[in-house]
Write a structure and sequence with these properties.
This protein is α/β, with parallel strands linked by helices and 195 residues long. It is built from 7 helices and 7 strands; from the N terminus they run βαβαβαβαβαβαβα. Strands 4-3-2-1-5-6-7 form a 7-stranded parallel β-sheet, with helices on both faces. The longest helix has 16 residues, at 19-34. It catalyses: AMP + H2O = D-ribose 5-phosphate + adenine.
Length: 195
């Protein structure tokens, strides 16, 4: 089992969402700080991203933000993080976040969060990212996507094994526990990447 020192957090930048999502984001940030686990995220200053970062920092934790230069030029970056890494583009951002992390937790989010989550799951399927991936299913937000994943397995677009590429948590506590206890996969997963 891998010693989890840094967890990558994918999540929404929206400010217009139900308060329950902010509650879970803040709780997750605090719990990671209290567990002495560094957060790496997209360095945004609003929405769930800002809430996770602020809660972790307030609890004495560390947050590394990775953000493309054009977003900094727009003033979208959190200026109080422990460390900010400015990269050239979105692709480099995602690669850097994955490289720095020992696990991923995906909170609810929009296009960007969904794209990040699906890409990291794909990388795991291909043996490019072997660490735990946890979906924090606050308020049942991810239920439709999880149903689609089940349908993909049922209709043989994916192997049943591929449904184990991620785990699902209903609470921040469970998400942290899963990230810390799920096994690291082996590159042998590549042998079954194709169906």
């Amino acid at each position: 089992m891998l010693m989890i020192q840094t967890i990558c957090i994918y999540c929404a930048s929206s400010t217009q969402i139900d308060p329950v999502y902010f509650d879970h984001a803040r709780l997750l940030g605090r719990q990671l700080a209290e567990a002495h686990i560094r957060i790496v995220n997209g360095a945004g200053n609003i929405g769930l991203m800002g809430a996770v970062s602020d809660a972790a920092l307030e609890a004495g934790g560390e947050v590394t933000g990775v953000i493309p230069r054009f977003m900094v030029e727009q003033g979208w970056n959190h200026t109080g993080l422990t460390e900010t890494i400015v990269v050239n583009d979105m692709h480099e951002r995602k690669q850097t976040m994955a490289r720095l992390s020992d696990a991923v937790i995906a909170l609810p989010g929009g296009y960007g969060t969904l794209e990040e989550l699906l890409e990291i799951i794909t990388w795991k399927q291909l043996g490019l990212y072997l660490n735990p991936i946890v979906i924090l299913n606050t308020n049942g937000y991810y239920d439709p996507l999880l149903q689609l994943f089940r349908q993909a397995v049922d209709e043989r677009f994916m192997r049943p094994l591929h449904a184990d590429l991620w785990a699902v948590a209903d609470t921040p506590e469970e998400a942290v526990r899963l990230a810390q206890t799920l096994p690291v996969w082996d590159q042998d997963i590549r042998r079954v990447a194709k169906y």
